[in-house]
Amino acid sequence: MVGGDGGELDDRALVRALRALGDSTRFRMVQEVAAAGELCCGQVAERFDVTQPTISHHLKVLFTAGVLSVRNQGKHRYISVNQQLLSSLASLLPARLMPVQPPPAARPGGAAAQTQT
C-alpha cells in the first residue's frame, strides 16, 4: 500500500518510490519542491533545462510512486513532497535490509547450545 492512506508501505510500493527517486533529474525535482515547500508545475519546469513533455513524464513517475502530492486550485496544480511517504522510506528501508536475527536459543553459543554441553 502507498503512504497516502496512512498504512505501511509494502515491498512493491517501497521499490516503486526508490526507483522513482533513483533518477537524478527526479531526485533533483523532489529536492526543489521540498526546498520551496510547494511549487506549481510551471515553476518546476522553469528550474530544469528539459522539455515540457520530459518534465511531465518525471512528475507522473513521482506522483504514481506517491513521492509527490498534488493540490488543484483553479487552473493550477500545486506540487508538494509526500512527507509521510519519505518518513516511511527512512524508517522502513533499514529495517527491511537488515539481517534477521535468530532467537537467542537458536544462535550458536545461545541458551540452547549451553544446555546441550
Could you characterize the architecture of this molecule?
Mean pLDDT is 84; it is low at 1-6. The chain has 117 residues and is mainly α. Strands 1-3-2 form a three-stranded antiparallel beta sheet. Helix 1 runs antiparallel to helix 4. Helix content is 55%, strand content 12%.
What secondary-structure arrangement, pairings included, does this model have?
Elements: H1 11-21, H2 24-36, E1 39-40, H3 41-46, H4 52-64, E2 68-73, E3 76-81, H5 83-97, H6 111-116
Antiparallel strand pairs: 1-3, 2-3
Outline of this structure?
Helices cover 55% and strands 12% of the residues. With 117 residues, the chain is mainly α.
Name some characteristics of this structure.
117 residues, mainly alpha, Arc Repressor Mutant, subunit A, three-stranded antiparallel sheet, 6 helices, elongated
Helical stretch tally: 6
Radius of gyration: 21 Å
Widest sheet, order of strands: 1-3-2
At CATH level 2, the architecture is Orthogonal Bundle
